[in-house]
Amino acid sequence: MTDEIKEVEKGEKENRIYEIGYHIVSSVTEEELPREVTSLKDILDKEKAGIISEEFPRLRPLAYSMQKRVSGGYQTYTNGYFGWIKFETTPESALRIDESLKKNEKVLRYLLIKTVREQTLTAGRPRTDRRERKEVPKDVPPSAPVSETELDKSIEKLIAE
């Protein structure tokens, strides 16, 4: 968000594309979740941000436990509802949205970034076999095909030894 502060200080009013990735605390029930997502969208509506795309949050295990201050104490979470919203707004509005998200007690963590309008989702990285691989020396020529009789002779020779 430091780039956004610089843009605001310069007085830039041109709309930009942003995305919020967020975790909602797991203490929110499935029935309450749509209301919490609506409250996040209301923050964007208040700033007249145009929503481009979004993904409704799903409960996921967190990579590590996170704490959030709740009612004077700390609550530890190991799961959270993860979702995202891509939207368009001015840098000034993005700063106000950032401040509103900081104050939201149901948001465990969030990340607000500047991005592009195009869809940037990928299918993920292809899986690789993590077993130890033997390196083939580069100076060894490829071997010629072996006939079955030659193979049988080699096996018999090995057995006889």
Short description:
With 161 residues, this protein is α+β, with helices and mostly antiparallel strands. The chain has one domain (2-114): Ribosomal protein S6/Translation elongation factor EF1B (Alpha-Beta Plaits), CATH 3.30.70.60.
Characterize the structure shown.
The protein has helices at 2-10, 33-46, 91-103, 148-160, and strands at 16-25, 50-70, 73-89, 107-114. It is an alpha+beta fold and 161 residues long. It has one domain (2-114): Ribosomal protein S6/Translation elongation factor EF1B (Alpha-Beta Plaits), CATH 3.30.70.60.
User: What number is the mean pLDDT?
Assistant: 85
How helix-rich are the residues, as a percent range?
Answer: 25-40%
Q: Tally the beta strands.
A: 4
The largest sheet is: 4 strands, antiparallel
CATH architecture: 2-Layer Sandwich
Task: Show the helix and strand layout.
Blueprint: H1 2-10, E1 16-25, H2 33-46, E2 50-70, E3 73-89, H3 91-103, E4 107-114, H4 148-160
Antiparallel strand pairs: 1-3, 1-4, 2-3
Helix pairs in contact: 1-3
Descriptive tags:
alpha+beta; Alpha-Beta Plaits; 4 strands
